[in-house]
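Annex B. Sample input.
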Amino acid sequence: MSGHSKWANIKNKKGKSDAKRASVFTKIGREIAVAVKQGGPDPNSNARLRDVIAKAKANNMPNDNIERGIKKASGELNAVNYEENVYEGYAAGGVAVIVETLTDNKNRTAGDIRHHFDKCGGAMGTSGCVSYMFETKGVIVVDGEGVDEDTVMMIALDCGANDIQSDEDVFEIYTDPNSLGEVREALEKEGSLKILSAQVDRIPSNTVKPDKDAEAKVLKLLDMLEDNDDVQNVYHNAELDDEDDED
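Annex B, continued. Sample output.
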């Protein structure tokens, strides 16, 4: 689940069942559709599409699925128009939550998101009610095996990154959100680091530690949101003891 620990998100994705993996492919397929609609079907001239394709490959999405998604969005196959929407609210225990969606039915999605919040002891709020608590950054996660922090820092800064942090067995490289693709491509060309993930993230300025009862409700909400096909990303500011085990 997206949040302040990007590596936890990657580990959770790797542990998903085939059904969950299919859901991830569905979500990425929608991102491909939006990217093509905005910038065209050629990744050489469409930076957003290049970033989505890189994300698809990092999630082991088959090339046939990627190519079919591009063709569908460019009009060669029957296409669906998806609208981007962001919802904000509070989960149990005062935890701030941001939900990014891509949907072909805004009313259905808004109703579903509100229902998820209500069912789990939270409340959906108005636009801007919690987003000020988060900073948007590009986050590139690289494998830390066999490399030290000074080496990663030197390579990352040379490639245009702003900062790096060590997190378990990986390094998180931070960039300006508009420079994420450029820095990722520079790292790929440099060739000595293994990139595990690259995407724009919302980093909370402060975190909240819910009590045990509230934490169970927060985890239930995060699970429900992630299982919704219209939901692309979920961000929160909770410190969750059981987050790695939520699957």
